[in-house]
Amino acid sequence: MKKGFARRAIAATVALGMGMTLAACSGGGSGGGSGSSVQSGTYKGPKVTVTFWNGWTGGDQQTILTKLVSEFNSSHKNIVIKPVEMQWADISAKMPLAIKAGKGPDLTVAHGDDIATYAAQGLLVKSDAIVKELGYKASDFPPGLFEHGVYQGAQYGIPWSVTPLGLYVNKSVLQKAGISPTDIPADKTTYLNDLQKLKDKGIQGEWVDGYVFTGTFEFESLLWQYGGDLFNKDVSKATFNSPAGVQALTWMVDLVKKGYSPAKVAQDGNINALIAGKTAFNWNGIWQTSNTALLKDQWTAAPVPQIGTQKGVWSSSTDWAFVNNKGQDKNKTQAAAAFVEWMENHSTVWAGGGELPAANKTRNSSSLAAQYPNLKPFLSELDYAHFETTAPGIPNAEATITVAVNNAILGKQSPKDALDQQAAKADQLLAQNKQQYGG
Q1: Cβ neighbours of residue 314 under 8 Å, at least 6 residues apart?
Q2: What is the mean pLDDT of residues 157-171?
């Protein structure tokens, strides 16, 4: 499981195990700080220490971050970046009280579906002026991503990384079924043909689960492929139970019914089966490219196949956000902005931790492709990727999607009944979020 999404996974697990509660996220307040100006990423003020909260607690990402921070600190005599690692869920829980007391970080990183919540709680500085001075604009990032950092007309996030889903393939398993490992399925017909060939050899070709990782992300990708969406435009109503949603979830359930997938796949059972040579395909995130258990010559990755009427794939993102502490030191905010620009300009190595740099100029550079050839299939998906919904408190409504997927995959409900029931619960949560946060 990708640790970066622990907050959403925890919410979904609670919903699955205890029933969906109708309480909105804690916090309150309206609006954020007024913003601070910087001059093209430079900082010439007094020496400051910038505290930076993030959820990269281990593995390659933490190692890469430590090296980048050390390099930045050694080249900036008047700025000291002090990273503080903690679980993503702990950041959400601890920031409101810490910021109210003036003891929060000066800079943080948030997932795309957390930005609006933090902004509505008054935890973040409006960063329009910073963005303008640094020269960032929507066209510097994948389509639709920059706008996800906007809340009530103000910019609060600067994109840092993106993590699309892809199709992981065990080449040796394909060969057992007489399928060329170079002929990776890209459409519905070819994918079904391969699954049938695998079944004929006694191999269940794709293990479908009902968890956030990766059943929910696969369902959402299929929903968009069939022309649907998760919520309506103003995020006041769930729409994942549309005919497109029913088609998407029915596709997944049918994989189990037809014997292409076993029933009751455990959390992470699908990626473990791929590694063990028990299955051929796994829809999973780009972070698995750094999974050392995947033998180098055994696997490859490709864009997810187009099952529906159009291309579509789920992707998450992370954004830099400037924190609105009580009595926030503007010098620290300016220094934090200088650090953000420096990091964006040195983000090629971030791909080594299983995330793509959000900045187009870095991500599309020849050096990144040369250093990390396994990432090439994911690069091509970003033109049609869909990122997290932007609305205060949205993670609680997102969790209902996993409940629906789980209930249908386990055969507890039909796809339509499962989606309808959870969409109704999501509507209640969305209404409570509107009441709490004001839109």
Answers
A1: 164, 165, 217, 218, 220, 221, 224, 385, 386
A2: 97
Helix axes 415-437, 243-257, angle to 10 degrees: 130
Structure tokens at 58: 């281990």
Measure Cα distances from 417 to 49, 98, 178, 245, 397 in Å.
Answer: 54, 43, 39, 11, 17
- Helices 6-18 and 394-409, packing angle to 10 deg: 60
Cβ 85 vs Cβ 62: under 8 Å: yes
Distance CA 93, CA 321 (A): 16
Q: What is the DSSP string of 386-413?
A: E----STTHHHHHHHHHHHHHHHHTTSS
Residues 6+ apart with CB under 8 A from 194: 174, 177, 179, 185, 205, 280, 281
CA distance 354 to 261: 27
Contact between 422 and 381 (Cβ < 8 Å): no
Q: Is-cis flag, bond preceding 214, omega within 30? A: yes
Extract the runs of DSSP E, i.e. beta strands, from 41-155.
48-54, 79-85, 107-111, 150-151, 154-155
Cβ atoms of residues 121 and 28 within 8 Å: yes
Sign (positive/negative) of CA torsion 414, 420, 426, 428?
Answer: negative
Q: Which domains are delineated in the chain?
A: 26-163+316-376 (3.40.190.10), 164-314+392-437 (3.40.190.10)
- Of 161, 143, 142, 165, the C-alpha closest to 360 is 142
Quote the DSSP letter at residue 40.
T
Biggest distance spanned by C-alpha atoms of the chain: 70
Model confidence pLDDT, tens digit, residues 364-416: 998 998 999 999 999 999 999 999 999 999 999 999 999 999 999 999 999 99
Tokens, residue 210: 């009902």
pLDDT > 80? residue 270:
yes
Look over the chain and give the mean of its residue pLDDT values, rounded to a whole number. 91
With CA atoms as reference, report the closest residue to 12 among 433, 422, 427, 430.
422
Q: Where are the alpha helices (DSSP H) in 106-163?
A: 115-120, 128-134
What is the DSSP secondary structure assignment for residue 36, as one 8-state letter? -
The whole-model pTM stands at 0.92
